[in-house]
Write a structure and sequence with these properties.
The chain is of the alpha+beta class. It is 64% helix and 9% strand.
């Protein structure tokens, strides 16, 4: 009910201003005729009525020109005081409304300045030319109270409106930020899924492709070794299926806490499985040497997975592009960081060898390193071959989101 009435009043501001002006004029007219007890009215009635009409008419412009309205109503109130009228609350009523409108639509300093000068001028005029038998309470405290009250109310109203606007602006900003954050999360999730699927599919398909090619060459001439390669091929494809199932299952059931499948199949690999990783490349004809320097230290889950995936992708690239069938993985532990270097340091790079900034695998390695708070450097070695070097913090400052395996 109150909100509906407020909306109707806000939609008809001119009618509201005219109604207020008429009401205040009806109050100001009898106010100009008030005299002290046992005293006659020392001034004619019509100047007060005329000045009240001017003040109330000026209120019609209080929304668009609050400064002008405040000046006109102040001048009219001063003239009424000069004429010797008693400054009751009825006489300065138009000035009170003008000061309220000024406080609502301008700054606090402007409203306080107008109010201070209005009080000073009215009090001085009442003391100098006012009725001698008028009590000092009416001459001094009356003008001060009646002018400070609307200014204070107007300032509070303005502050309330500013607070409401600020709250609304924050709500709109939060809504825009929420939509932007949602789009950002979708993009990050899409990139993460692309990295995970690339790492899983590329590694196992490369091994399967090499094993299948070797199998074709050895089927007739060396059936025993071909049978062993078939077993390795089955193991590679089975491992690929398991990792794909775990990745897809985690994506499907990441929010399903009651589904045990996600919990059992979402174990993320890490450097603890590095020996199994290097053994899988041995079946594809790549000999991997692992060298550890320093005392091994535990990594966070995200950093451990990042290190494993980058080593996996680097060795996969060596298998695809390198001429020599050997690679070296060097793990260097320091008190706060882990350095990993994967090199193929003999022979020469093949023509199809990737450049440091090309290929989805290299892009994924760089994104993984940055997400774990580390840095990655890749490039050709001057003496031949390719090198991948990464540094990862052992203890990240912020909690890491554990990515999918």
């Amino acid at each position: 009910m109150t909100d509906s009435l407020q909306r109707r009043l806000d939609s008809h501001p001119h009618i509201v201003d005219m109604s207020l002006a008429a009401l205040l004029f009806a109050c100001s007219v009898p106010g100009s005729m008030i005299a002290l007890p046992d005293s006659d009215l020392g001034v004619p009635w019509w100047p007060g009525v005329l000045l009240a009409g001017i003040s109330c008419t000026a209120l019609l412009w209080r929304r668009g020109r609050p400064h002008t309205t405040a000046v006109l109503t102040t001048v009219c109130a001063l003239i009424v005081a000069v004429l010797g009228c008693i400054l009751t609350v009825l006489l300065p009523a138009p000035l009170m409304l003008a000061l309220y409108s000024l406080a609502v639509r301008t700054g606090r300093r402007t409203a306080n300045t107008f109010t201070f000068w209005g009080i000073a001028l009215l009090m001085t005029t009442a003391l100098v030319v006012g009725p001698t038998d008028e009590p000092l309470v009416l001459k001094l405290l009356g003008p001060a109270f009646w002018l400070l009250l609307p200014t204070s109310l107007g300032t509070v109203t303005r502050f309330r409106a500013v607070c409401l606007e600020a709250v609304q602006a924050r709500a709109e900003h939060a809504e825009r930020t929420r939509e932007k954050e949602a789009r950002h999360r979708v993009t990050e999730e899409r990139m993460r899924i692309a990295r995970d699927l690339h790492d899983v599919v590329a590694h196992h398909l490369v091994l399967a492709h090499i094993q299948a090619g070797t199998l074709v060459r050895l089927m007739r001439t060396r059936p025993d070794e071909a049978e062993r390669i078939v077993a390795d091929l089955i193991g590679s494809t089975s491992s690929a299926l398991r990792e794909l199932k775990a990745t897809v299952g985690l994506l499907r059931h990441a929010d399903d806490v009651d589904n045990p499948l996600a919990a059992t199949e979402s174990t993320t690999p890490g450097l603890g499985q590095l020996s199994d990783l290097t053994a899988s490349f041995r079946h594809a004809g790549l000999t991997v040497t692992v060298i550890t320097e320093g005392e091994p230290r535990p990594l966070s889950t995200g950093a451990d997975l990042t290190a494993y995936r980058i080593v996996q992708e680097a060795l996969t690239n060596v298998t695809k592009h390198a001429v020599t069938p050997s690679a070296e993985v060097r793990l260097t532990y320091s008190p706060d960081r882990l350095g990993i270097t994967v090199t193929n340091d003999t022979g020469r790079a093949s023509p199809s060898s990737p450049t440091p900034n090309s290929g989805y695998g290299l892009i994924g390695m760089r994104e993984r390193a940055h997400s774990a708070g580390g840095r990655l450097r890749v490039g050709h070695r001057p003496q031949g071959g390719f090198e991948v070097e990464i540094e990862l913090p052992l203890h990240p400052h912020a909690p890491e989101e554990v990515p999918a395996p």
